[in-house]
Amino acid sequence: LAWDRIADIRKLAELRGWANGAPDGQRDLPLFLCACFLAEAMLARDIESELLELARQFAPTWSAGDIRSCAATVYSRAQAAARGETVAFGGRVVDPRYRWRNTTLIDRLNITPAEAREMRTIISKAEKRRRSVVRSAEARLVAGCRPRAQWLESVEQRRASARLLRAQGLSYPRIAVELGVSVGAAHAYCKQ
Asked: For residues 71 and 51, is the Cβ–Cβ distance under 8 A?
């Protein structure tokens, strides 16, 4: 999850056209968040070198001291977690590293719905639902189900055929046989 979130922040930078780094005043947050996610994914002693590499994307003009300053609390919390220290948070005992909710990340980074469609993990509940609907529709197609519009069209065709056959004087059981449906369905097609 941590690496995917870093990839999402990098993708956000790409989408926003930050080829030469984030604009002034917007560099701290992406770098700080990346440091937080590195602290979840790596040993504390390895965070700084990886963060220096990430800083080239978000703040290429910053010195190593500026980068260390931006992530100082992340480093200290990661080291405390490595030593086995814990803190009380939300009624639970947890390690002291920062934790982020997607809603907080979306708000802080001002991620738009269009940008969220390009993300892997930093997505809203609405985007998660949209993706679920798309996956379900694709699964139904793979399973051999027809798209809803196509199914509705076939129902209308059967309804028209049933009415035509009824107008020709056929009984409901005979219409059912002709259309390959139940007698109840044949009756319903003729009534609607």
From this structure: yes
